[in-house]
Amino acid sequence: MKFEELPTPCYVVDEALIEKNLKILSGVMQRTGAKIVLAQKAFSMTTMYPLIGEYLSGTTASGLFEARLGYEEMGKETHVFAPAYRAEELDEILSICDHIIFNSFSQLEKFKDKALKAGRKVGLRINPQCSTQIGHEIYDPCSTGSRFGALVDQFRPELLEGVTGLHFHTLCQQNSDDLETTLNAVVEKFGEWLPKMEWINFGGGHHITRDDYDIPRLEACIKRMQNDYGLEVYLEPGEAVALNAGYMVASVLDFHKNGIDIAILDTSATCHMPDVLEMPYRPPLQQSGEPGEKAFTYRLAGQTCLTGDVIGDYSFDRPLQEGDRVVFEDMAIYSMVKTNTFNGMPLPAIAVKGRDGDCRVVREFGYEDFKTRLA
C-alpha cells in the first residue's frame, strides 16, 4: 500500500533509512575493528533484525526477555547488563548470553563463579563519575546518587580474577567529544586495571548516525584503547541504528479552543510517545513550523484523560481539517518500545516502508491486546 493509505495511528519504519544508518555503523567497524551491537532497549522491532544482523555484531539486553529476543531473532553475539540479576533467571541468561556484565562487586561476588563455569565472558560496569549531560539528570548515569556502576573508591581488586572486561555507559544522544571526555576520566580513575582486561565496552548514547557526529574522533577513541591497552572495543548504540528512520502517522479527530486552538489526534503523547513528556521534547512534524511561524497555530493533543497529554504546539500554512493526517518524524527509537494502553488507548499499528517506497503493515493491535495485559 501507499504511505497515505496506512491506518492511523501507525508507526512506519523506513527500511532504506535503517540501512543507511547501518552502513555508517558498519564503516566504523570496518575501519577500526571494533564491534557494534544493537541496544534493544531503544529499538527492538524484530522485522528489522535480519537486516541489522547483516551489518552489526549482535545485540545487547537489559534483562532476560531482551536477551532471549536478541538470541532467538538475530542469533549473533548476545550481551546483557542489569543493575541486579534475579537468581532464578540467571541459568537461562547464562545459557544464551556471550557477555554478562555485573553492576557491582556484590553482584560479581554472588554470581561470577557461576558465569565463569558456564564459559561466559564476565564484565564489570564502572562509573567514572564524569557527567557530560546538562539538564537531563534522569538520563545521566553519572549523576549524584546513580545506581549504575562500581565507583573507584569501592574497588575490590581481589574479586577481579576472571573478569575480562570493563563497561561504562554515560552518554545520551551525545557526540564523540563527550565520549573523549569520559574516556579520559575512565583512564584516570581505572587505568591501572585496563592492562589486565581483554575488552572494554563504551556503552550506548553515541549518536553516530547524526549528521554532525564526529566519527573520526570516535574512531580515535577506539584506537586509543586498542593501541594503549590491547583491548577489543564494543559499542552498543540503540538510537543510532534507527535514528531519523521512522514516523508516527496520526489523524485529526476534532478541535477545541481554550486560549489556543487545539487539535485532538488519534494518538497520544503519554501512550505512544512518552519520551515527549519524560525528556521533555517537541518531536519534529512534517510541513509545520514553530508556534506563530506559519499562519495557523495549533496545540496537538491526545485522547487520554491526562491533562498533560500534549505533543506540542505547531503552526501550519492552512487550517487543519478533521481527518487530516500529520506525520511526526524520528519515531522509531524509544517511542515504539515504550508504548502502553493507558485509558484503553489502542496501540498503533506497525508498518515498514520498503526500499521501493511501498508500505506493508506488519502488526496491528486490538482489544485483546489491551484486555490480556492484565488478568
TrEMBL record:
Keywords: Decarboxylase, Lyase, Pyridoxal phosphate, Spermidine biosynthesis
Lyase recorded as keyword: yes
Annotated GO MF terms: lyase activity
EC code: 4.1.1.96
Gene3D superfamilies in the cross-refs: Alanine racemase (3.20.20.10), Lyase, Ornithine Decarboxylase, Chain A, domain 1 (2.40.37.10)
CDD domains: PLPDE_III_CANSDC
Domain Orn/DAP/Arg decarboxylase 2 C-terminal: 10-331
Cofactors required: pyridoxal 5'-phosphate
PANTHER family, A to Z: CARBOXYNORSPERMIDINE_CARBOXYSPERMIDINE DECARBOXYLASE, DIAMINOPIMELATE DECARBOXYLASE
Protein name as annotated: Carboxynorspermidine decarboxylase
Species of origin: Paenibacillus terricola
Gene responsible for this protein: nspC
